[in-house]
């Protein structure tokens, strides 16, 4: 799903289901928040284009 300069996606890792939301920054990098459903797992990430 996309909204202005942010997008979200679901993913599967084995039996776990997760969600990530990324914001596209002016320099092309992606700043993200993620979580894994039913667990205490969550975090942030920054993806930078080469």
Q: What secondary-structure arrangement, pairings included, does this model have?
A:
Blueprint: E1 2-3, E2 6-13, E3 16-24, E4 30-36, E5 42-47
Antiparallel strand pairs: 1-2, 2-3, 3-4, 4-5
Brief overview:
With 50 residues, the chain is mainly beta. The chain contains no helices and 5 strands.
Describe the 3D structure.
- This protein has 50 residues and is mainly β.
- It contains no helices and five strands.
- The protein has strands at 2-3, 6-13, 16-24, 30-36, 42-47.
- It has a five-stranded antiparallel β-sheet with strand order 1-2-3-4-5, with no helix packed on it.
- The chain is elongated, with a radius of gyration of 12 Å.
Jot down its keywords.
mainly beta, 64% strand, 5-stranded antiparallel β-sheet, 50 residues, elongated
Share in helix: under 10%
Overall 3D form:
elongated
Terminal CA distance reads 25 Å
Number of helices: 0
Largest sheet: 5 strands, antiparallel
- Could you spell the SSE succession in H and E letters? EEEEE
How many E-type strands?
5
How large a portion of the residues is in β-strands, by DSSP E? over 45%
Unreliable sequence segments: none
State Rg.
12 Å
Strand order of the largest sheet: 1-2-3-4-5
Structural class: mainly beta
Summed over residues and divided by their number, the pLDDT gives a mean of 92
């Amino acid at each position: 799903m996309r909204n202005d300069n942010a997008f979200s996606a679901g993913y599967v890792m084995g039996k776990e289901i997760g969600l990530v939301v990324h914001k596209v920054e002016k320099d092309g990098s992606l700043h993200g928040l993620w979580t894994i459903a039913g667990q205490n797992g969550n975090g942030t990430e920054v993806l930078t284009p080469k």
